[in-house]
């Protein structure tokens, strides 16, 4: 016949909830340090609570190895002693973890509290839960004299208080814990509703903040098993208390950490394409197209007239002189090769063809340069006009 053993059940619950709590707390630290860049007191308290929870899990797992979850009749005396010693440390780690987690959740809610009445409610819930858990911590710590008599029953002069006191104090703490959990669960709805946020944002925040109430479900589920703390078959009958205590701590840390992960959730939803996030304007011009040279030059011309006046272009009257007028003007000096002294009719077909080919090449070159460097063409045209006008002006002065 197999020996009844519920120890593996306890170990499985321990691993599942401590892994969840560690992951949630690690994500909380990443969000607060990397994304929000504001690691506060509530974050430190939650980290400390997670460390005490890990200590609780280690003690509970070791106790399951020695005999927690089995009947006393199936164990040796030294195994019972080892398992009860682990149970004693679980008491202490449990109290420390729950005190710090409740204070951490309260400090987190104080950040968004704007009304005095809400602040006092949060302080009252923190005080009540902390006071009850602190009292339970010291009573369980000094319930036996000497302390080691809790697990070493072989001592002749050891004494312990009646287990009825422990059970009653356990009920008192559970009631206060439920009140505090529901206060932390319902109050955020009023806190968030008064914030200057969009309605959709408020609705998204409330479920995250109210997840702390799930820890109270474990407290309520543990209440029927508290009288078994006075059972002679202690390691077997108190296994359900150990399981629900693990669930309570794991849910409290996980829920308290998930309430701070909204920036991470928004980022993940944006990466998956399920939501859009407002983007802040970038001060730099990275990725913008550089304006063309013509716009830069025109803006410079509009902004400064001195750049043009240095060439005396503003004082020159723009006139158009045709080739025919120059040819009819007898006073205008002609080049020795100017139509060979006979005018345009004396040009040969080869010369006309050469001139046409030169004109085509110049037009082709001008079109290529205009597509490559618009500013260069504009500058060259400007100096071509100046040179022509200067030559005309010099020729006119020579005949005055």
Q: Short description, anyone?
A:
The protein has 400 residues and is mainly α. It is 68% helix and 1% strand.
Characterization of the model:
- This protein is mostly helical and 400 residues long.
- The protein folds into 2 domains: 7-271, Rhopdopsin 7-helix transmembrane proteins; 293-398, no CATH class.
- Helix content is 68%, strand content 1%.
- The protein is built from 15 helices and 2 strands.
- It has helices spanning 7-35, 41-66, 77-112, 116-141, 163-193, 199-209, 214-222, 234-237, 239-258, 262-271, 293-303, 306-309, 323-328, 349-372, 374-398; strands spanning 144-145, 159-160.
- The chain has a two-stranded antiparallel sheet.
- Helix 1 (7-35) packs antiparallel against helix 2 (41-66), helix 3 (77-112) packs antiparallel against helix 4 (116-141) and helix 3 runs parallel beside helix 5.
- The longest helix is centred in the first third of the chain and has 36 residues, at 77-112.
- The chain is elongated and about 120 Å long.
- It starts with 6 loop residues before the first helix and ends with a helix.
